[in-house]
Design goal:
With 150 residues, the protein is an alpha+beta fold. It has 1 helix and 8 strands.
Length: 150
Amino acid sequence: MKLKFAVGMLAVFFLAFAGNESKAQSNPPPPPNPVLYFIGQELYTANSASYIRYRYGVFNSSAYPNAMFAPAPSLPPCGANANASRTWVDLFDQRGKRLNGFCALGTGDHLNSIWFALPEGEVPPSWIYVELTDRQTATKYKSNLADTTN
């Protein structure tokens, strides 16, 4: 009798564990906050004016599934872009002033080519951060503060 009870309890345990395992596979954990880092700066010219582009990457960009950056025509457009991505990316200075934004990155890997620009000679903010806004889930992911120089 004790053996039957033990075997029965063991079976219940394994079934419960197997059920939890399949739930974990169907609901992956949410992505972490982005880890922003400075890549470098470059001079460029547009409309006869010179600018400095401050380039950044997200160290843990692979933690963000590409589905987060897929076109989302059912969500509000980004200007004239009716196929803007599900997740928008905005760069801010340390006080919260928006510096630039991206609404159609396409993949998580494109987080490694985000930037903001200032006219040549203008002093950049000391620190910036990035926010990823998943418009489908109404979730924001805020990064660390990253420097604007090497």
